[in-house]
Amino acid sequence: MRKPLIAAVLALSCVSAGSAAAAPADHRDPLDAETLTTIRSEFGKLMVLANRHDLEAIHQMFWQSPSALLVAKSAIPANGNWAGFWGNAAIDRKLHDIAASGPVVLQPDFSKLKVVGLTRDVAESYAPMTITVSYAGQDGTPKPFLMIIDWIRTGKDWKVASEIILPVPPPPAAKG
């Protein structure tokens, strides 16, 4: 019993040490510059489609899988304030509900858009943005968010495997 426990502790400490260490200086992204540019372009296209409320085109940008994920504001108290919506039918319903709530405007800070390859077939993008939306009790005031997207290569195309939209909390009140 002690040997498995010791092995688990050692494995966990190796994982922890590895995650705290910086990437080696000779780290090379598994995706070439052209592919990273393609994904940046797909991100821009997704923003245009979202601002147009082109739900059919957005649907086509998502990976068609029960494992596709959208994390967004929930209108159902039992789900909590923010929730995960798994699979294309749930994602389509959620995006439809958000679009039907009124104007939705996403304004990404493209100067801070970061795209990295995780493997030859998976990439991740990160962008801070301002979102104006009146969905689920939001008042339509532009607010800061972070958007993190995992992209998956399907054939020659890059599809959204997961889109995580996180609200940026306000800064803490200054102590007086």
How would you sum up this structure, described in words?
The chain has about 180 residues and is an alpha+beta fold. The protein has one domain (about 30-165): Nuclear Transport Factor 2, Chain: A, CATH 3.10.450.50. Helix content is about 35%, strand content about 30%. The chain is built from 4 helices and 7 strands, in the order αααββαβββββ. The protein has helices spanning about 1-20, 35-50, 55-60, 90-100; strands at about 70-75, 80-85, 105-110, 115, 120-130, 145-155, 155-165. Strands 1, 2, 3, 4, 5, 6 and 7 form a 7-stranded mixed β-sheet that branches. Helix 2 (about 35-50) packs antiparallel against helix 3 (about 55-60). The longest helix is centred in the N-terminal third of the chain and has 20 residues, at about 35-50. The N and C termini lie far apart (about 55 Å).
